[in-house]
C-alpha cells in the first residue's frame, strides 16, 4: 500500500449508516462505528517517516564512504588503518565510517528530524538536520581527541559538508513531492476550528494561505453554532460547543484547532482533550499571537497552567556578529567572482542609452540613517523628473509607485530587472555595512515619512538586497503584505531563515516571478 492509499481524504470514506456517537457534550466518550480518521493520518505519517529514514541512511552512507574513497582511494577494506593510542588498538577507516554512519543516524533520530509536526513546512526541519549533523561531528571530534586517535582531517572535512548538503537536498526534494501532493488535496490533516468567529476566521485564513502546512480546514464550531452563516466561503459552521465531539465525529476530523479567543471553560478544554485522546486525534491550540516564530515561544508549566513566554527580538550579540561576518564574506566573494558580469552589464548600459552605468539613490537604513544605494541604471537619465507625469497611471499600492510597462525603463534595463541584475552593485553596500544580504526592503525617505508608527520597526535591522518580500511575490505584493513580511522578518530573523530566503531568491529570480 502506498503512502497516498494510507491517506484517503475524508470525502472518500462513506459515512456511517448508524449513529455516529453517543456523545452529547464536550469530553464524553464517543462510540465510533468506523475506522479512526486519526489512525489513517498516522499511517501515512509513519510511512513517510520511514521513507525519510531510508533516504537519510543512503545519503549519510554515500557521504561518509564517498569521503573515505576520495581521501584514501579504493584499496582494500583496511586502507587507512590508524592506531587509537589511548586504547592501544588499530582500527580500519572502513570501521570508522560504519561508526560515523550509525552515530549520525542516531543523532538524526535523537533530534526528531522526522517528526510529523516539523516535516513539510517551515525551517524547523532544516534546523534539526543542521543541529544533529554539526552536533554529532563535534562530539566525534572531541572523542577522537580524548582517545588520541589521529583521524585524517581531510576525511572528516569531506564527510561533514557533503553529508549535510545531501541531507538538506534530499529533504527539500521530499518536501517538494509532499507539497505537490498536498496541492492536490492528498496527505492532509482534516481539522475543525473551535473559537469565536473573528479569531477562527483569522486562523483559517493564515492556514489556508500556506499550502505546505498540510492542514485542511473542513469546518468550524462556534459558541452559538449558527450554521446559516458560514465562517468563510469554503468553511461551514458545523454547530455549537455543547456537541463538539459529535460534530468532530460527524465530519471525520482528525485534528481540532482551538483558537486563542474562546469562552470554553478549563474543564471543557480538559474534557475535549480526553475525548480527542480516545480518538487518537490531534489537539492544537492557536494562541492569539500573530507573526511570532517558534524560537521566540517557550512553554513553561506553572501551577498546571501551560504559560507561553514570548522572547523579544534580538538585534545585538553573537547572532548579529555572525550575520555581519557572513555578509562580509559573501559580498567580498560576490564582488570578486561576479566582476566579469559587472563589466559586461555596465558596458551594455552605457552602449544602449546615454548616461552613467550606475545609479545612486538615497535610501533609509538601520535606525533611520540615510545611505546611498548603488544599482545599475535601468531607466533613462531623467527618470525622476518624469515620475510626476506618471503617478496617475501607477499600478502600485498607494505607497509604492509600480508600473509594469513603465516607459522610462530602457530595453536593457527591463532585462536586468527581470533577472535582478540591477541589484548586484548593492553587494558594495553590503560590504560597506549599509545593507545586509537579507533584510527588509530599503525604503525611500518619502515612504518613511508616511509610515504609521509601528511600521518604523522595519528600520531596526539593516535593509537587504533580498528578503521575504522578494521571495513572496516581488513587485506583485500589496503594501500591507510587504510590510507584514518585512515586520515578520524583523521580529524573527535567524541565520537559518536567511539561508532559506537566499535559496528561495535564486528560485524566484530564475522564474522571474513578479519582476518588473
From TrEMBL:
Entry keywords, A to Z: Membrane, Transferase, Transmembrane, Transmembrane helix
Keyword Transferase among record annotations: yes
Superkingdom in the source lineage: Bacteria
GO molecular function terms attached to this record: transferase activity
Transmembrane segments: 48-71, 91-111, 132-149, 155-174, 328-347
Gene3D superfamilies: NAD(P)-binding Rossmann-like Domain (3.40.50.720)
UniProt keyword Cell wall biogenesis/degradation, yes or no: no
UniProt name for this protein: Sugar transferase
